[in-house]
Amino acid sequence: KQEVTQIPAALSVPEGENLVLNCSFTDSAIYNLQWFRQDPGKGLTSLLLIQSSQREQTSGRLNASLDKSSGRSTLYIAASQPGDSATYLCAVMGHDMRFGAGTRLTVKP
Amino acid sequence: ETGVTQTPRHLVMGMTNKKSLKCEQHLGHNAMYWYKQSAKKPLELMFVYNFKEQTENNSVPSRFSPECPNSSHLFLHLHTLQPEDSALYLCASSQRGLAENNEQFFGPGTRLTVL
């Protein structure tokens, strides 16, 4: 059974810092890994999708990497802004769809 | 707003009520999903429909009954729920079911409270 872990559970940084969020999974037989952000009480917004054959994806200030053999993904956020404050979720799609518990990010002005 | 809409956005119901949640996607996708998000727990996949056929049912109690009349609409029928069923229910869609290169898009969710 796939298990997905996100570290840290919460992170608070001053505006402008670069930061890394971590996601690990136990079963490397995956199709994709997807990163989302969720604002309080809202749905999920897709940020990046990495296929199992890819190593990384970039969108604006976001860069996600995938190391399937070690069961790890990272989401790098450059030059963080207060508007980046949200919960970030990673999800692994294989024979099932499993989410991590998320990292709650606060970017202070 | 995304191309996935959900109604109602908020619902309060008693344990003896029957209600339905509705999801509609305007993205031309063929797969739709129901998820449950409880406080302090990761999202849980409940049901997957691919081309209107149910392909996943993750041991969900029978008091939750899904219906997918076509690839654009998905319902979750609720009856005799328990207070612990209170949660945010999220709908998602993708081009196809659990498969390679398959980005999921989520609706805003229905906040359900069972009294």
Count the DSSP helices of chain B. Answer: 0
Query: What integer value in Å does the Rg of chain B equal?
Result: 13 Å
| Ends distance of chain A | 41 Å
Considering residues with a beta carbon less than 8 A from a beta carbon on another chain, report the largest interface and each chain's count: A-B, 26 and 29 residues
What value does the average pLDDT of chain A take?
A: 95
Low-confidence regions of chain A: none
On the 0 to 100 scale, the average pLDDT of chain B is: 92
Q: Please tell me how large the radius of gyration of chain A is.
A: 13 Å
Strand tally of chain B: 11
The largest pleated sheet of chain B is described as: 7 strands, mixed
How would you explain this protein's 3D organization?
The complex is a heterodimer of chains A (about 110) and B (about 120). Chain A is mainly β and about 110 residues long. Chain A is about 0% helix and about 60% strand. Chain A is built from no helices and 11 strands. The termini of chain A are far apart. The mean pLDDT of chain A is about 95. Chain B is an all-beta fold. In chain B, strands 2, 4, 5, 6, 9, 10 and 11 form a 7-stranded mixed beta sheet that branches. In chain B, strands 1-3-8-7 form a 4-stranded antiparallel beta sheet, with no helix packed on it. In chain B, strand 7 (about 65-70) and strand 8 form a beta hairpin. The mean pLDDT of chain B is about 90. The interface of A and B includes residues 46, 91 and 94 of A.
Short note summarizing the structure:
The complex is a heterodimer of chains A (109) and B (115). Chain A contains no helices and eleven strands.
Write the layout of secondary structure elements.
The complex is a heterodimer of chains A (109) and B (115).
Chain A: E1 4-7, E2 10-14, E3 19-25, E4 32-38, E5 44-51, E6 56-59, E7 62-67, E8 72-77, E9 86-93, E10 97-99, E11 103-108
Parallel strand pairs in A: 2-11
Antiparallel strand pairs in A: 1-3, 3-8, 4-5, 4-9, 6-7, 7-8, 9-10, 9-11
Chain B: E1 4-7, E2 10-13, E3 18-25, E4 31-37, E5 44-50, E6 53-57, E7 64-70, E8 73-79, E9 87-94, E10 105-106, E11 110-114
Parallel strand pairs in B: 2-11
Antiparallel strand pairs in B: 1-3, 3-8, 4-5, 4-9, 5-6, 7-8, 9-10, 9-11
